Amino acid sequence: MLSGLQFRTFCDVGAAEGYTISLVRALLNLERPVAIDLSLEAARRAHELFGLLSCSADAACLPFKTNSFDVVLCSEVIEHLERPFAAIGELLRVCRHYLLVTTEVVGSSPLHRLAMLKTRQIGKPHYDRNIWLLEDFEKMFGEDIVAIPQFFASSDRNDPESSEVAHRKLLEMAPLEKPSRSTVGLVILIRKDRSGRREHHPFVRGTALIATLGAADLVGG
């Protein structure tokens, strides 16, 4: 998804020890990406392990000016947050062009979400506070967001483990274009653009469009 975007500055909010952002830096030739995590120890490890610019901060109160980064990534974080909507408002505020959000904790319907909430292991370290639906993002950002699934849920668990089987399954799974009952998780791309202009994202086939929304619209609403 990131490879289809044009950007120079990048921030990963909830970067942990910096593994993902280090891959983004290496694959897309970024010079000075910034890693943010609530854990001060994780921020220190990101600097020690990968030489990243890093700091500790709450996603709901980021210490950066508005429009500080071309792209902001928040991967596998929003399901854990105490104030997820405040955090999304902050993520939009500090990004200049694109916000990319991923979460594996996704329900297929309101009833499914309720069941998932009822069976959570509350109090367990790093438990899931929030269960998301695709329609949550559509209500926040409009129906024309780019939304693709993270994984394909294979029903065949009896295949022999081999490189040939793995190769075949990868071909079957790619590209994952639309979330469905056979997929897991969501990758959501939001374009921040006050002009109201919409444009196609080269990664996504079909008619999916990138949503256009100003940060003030979300925070104010």
Return the average pLDDT rounded to an integer. 83
Shape: globular
Helix content: 25-40%
- Give me the CATH fold name: Rossmann fold
List the secondary-structure elements in sequence, H or E: EHEHEEHEHHEEHEEEH
Counting DSSP E segments of at least 2 residues, the number of strands comes to 10
Coarse structural class: alpha/beta
How large is the share of residues in beta strands? 15-25%
Low-pLDDT stretches: 195-200, 202-221
Describe the structure.
- The chain is α/β, with parallel strands linked by helices and 221 residues long.
- The chain has one domain: Vaccinia Virus protein VP39 (Rossmann fold, 3-Layer(aba) Sandwich), CATH 3.40.50.
- The chain has helices at residues 19-28, 40-50, 84-94, 110-118, 134-141, 163-173, 215-220; strands at 10-13, 34-37, 53-56, 69-75, 95-103, 146-148, 151-152, 183-184, 186-191, 211-212.
- The strands form two sheets. Strands 1, 2, 3, 4, 5, 6, 9 and 10 form an eight-stranded mixed beta sheet that branches. Strands 7-8 form a two-stranded antiparallel sheet.
How would you describe this structure in keywords?
Rossmann fold; alpha/beta; 19% strand; 221 residues; two-stranded antiparallel sheet; disordered C terminus; single chain; 8-stranded mixed β-sheet; 7 helices
Write the layout of secondary structure elements.
Layout: E1 10-13, H1 19-28, E2 34-37, H2 40-50, E3 53-56, E4 69-75, H3 84-94, E5 95-103, H4 110-118, H5 134-141, E6 146-148, E7 151-152, H6 163-173, E8 183-184, E9 186-191, E10 211-212, H7 215-220
Parallel strand pairs: 1-2, 1-4, 2-3, 4-5, 9-10
Antiparallel strand pairs: 5-9, 6-9, 7-8
